[in-house]
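Re: the multi-chain job from yesterday

Posting the exact lines I submitted so nobody has to dig through the queue logs.
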Amino acid sequence: MTDSGTPESAPVATHGTRRPGGRTARTRVAVRDAVLTGLTEHGYPGLTVEYVAEHSGVHKTTLYRRWGGLEGMVADALDMACEDDWTPPDTGSLEGDLRALARQVVDSFADPARAAAPTAFVAAALQSPQAASALRDFYTVRFTRCEAVVARAVTRGEAAPDIDAGAVVRAVSAPLFLRLFVTREPVDEAAADRSAAAVLAAVRAGVYSLGAG
Amino acid sequence: MTDSGTPESAPVATHGTRRPGGRTARTRVAVRDAVLTGLTEHGYPGLTVEYVAEHSGVHKTTLYRRWGGLEGMVADALDMACEDDWTPPDTGSLEGDLRALARQVVDSFADPARAAAPTAFVAAALQSPQAASALRDFYTVRFTRCEAVVARAVTRGEAAPDIDAGAVVRAVSAPLFLRLFVTREPVDEAAADRSAAAVLAAVRAGVYSLGAG
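And the result, structure tokens for all chains:
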């Protein structure tokens, strides 16, 4: 086992600089698509470099040279998922923003086709330390973007300045992700609204203050 | 694909009637142990009937006859996990009980060896509808037992009688399970205490009232 397949060493030349028209970018997208298809069809342990080569049209030697191996391909697919221009909702109130965030989670998973890739990544991360590291990085980026919601609430005086924004935005998704990924129970808009209301009540009670203990 | 491997049809003769000394019970434990070892070593897609036969010492034809197939074995292992005599903490207050529940989750996953089996089951459930069904049943039983904590709080006047006890006990675990199974971030006692405090604040604010909307 070498380090060549870890996310850190995966050569992500286009990271942060999207070049949708370039050959390198097209290759990267083709590999990402093949990884997603393979993960959703066969799961992480069933994913092979041969499968990715066949479904992306990219030669195996190129795959090994640019991504190091499967772990690097899975990590790069997660890196690409971070490169979108998504920003959290801005409704004008913390209550509205938290509710909109929670509803976005429910909407994302209402369509099984859209839910398949994130579900496959979570499963992969439970079986591969490299995929786990990449998924942790992915969620760090996502939740850090979400923290804008809390920063605006602090500016508006809806939350104390010493609030743990990371804990707040994780708490909004938590009951929904519990049902989607762990207990495998359905989620709906009522569950989203209740999660947002619970977090708001906890914020108002000062639970997420970094000074609380 | 037949129904013979689904949890519903798995012949779970000893369900709810523990017979630790019987030959059937010993066989069932041996198969369960082999399933756990196989899941943690190879993941769900790498688990085979051959592996279970070899590691349990139970003949393949017996495995197929009694469990129908791998899905039935995984489901039965989850059924057995429900058959312990665990009850939720009873500290005398809702605050204390919620905190004790959350800390139990953190303690359970502090030891990688104890964490391996639940993690493997969650991964299996993300890849097999049958495992998902069995895991959903497992968590339904677990969380239903936890609801005693809320019932006692209602009796003590700490919560309104129309509280959604199932949502409350899920909410306590949710931020911890999010970190353990989805974002793959560490958990600690402070995270447990904060989760309990957040749920308590939401209960006091009436968020979990079934009449709230």
